[in-house]
Amino acid sequence: MGDEIRVNKSVPIIPQKKTLKHAKREDQQEHKHKNEAGDHFQQLSNAAKLANDVLERDKSPYRFRIYQEGEEVFIDIVIVDDDLTIKETKKTNITHEEFTTWLNHIEQGNGLFFDITA
User: Fold this and answer.
1) Summary mean pLDDT of the chain
2) Going by DSSP bridges, is the β-strand pair 86-91/62-69 parallel, antiparallel, or unpaired?
3) How many other CB atoms sit within 10 Å of the CB of residue 101?
4) For residue 69, how many other CB atoms are within 10 A of its CB?
5) How far apart are CA 66 and CA 77, in angstroms?
6) pLDDT for residue 49
7) CA distances, 40 to each of 23, 35, 55, 72 (Å)
8) pLDDT at res. 5
């Protein structure tokens, strides 16, 4: 009798795995988030292309570079040569707000101005 184990109350067993319904819902939310990130990236890329076309037309060496790493989208300002090869990165990881401001300046014919001393 010394080796007996007595259980006075039952203990509920909580499953370690997520239920199929919960896992499916999370997958759908993640897929929706990836689609939104992809759509956002495409919109930024289209805007950058239009701005880069104007900059090229005006013989400016500056261009916007948009790229995505995972779900994060990055915007840089670069200098290109005549062959459109990137020679220098002037400003990295600019904010969406800065990007929008510069797009408006370019659209209004004011050009691209930024402070690289900050």
Assistant:
1) 75
2) unpaired
3) 14
4) 7
5) 9
6) 93
7) 26, 8, 22, 10
8) 47
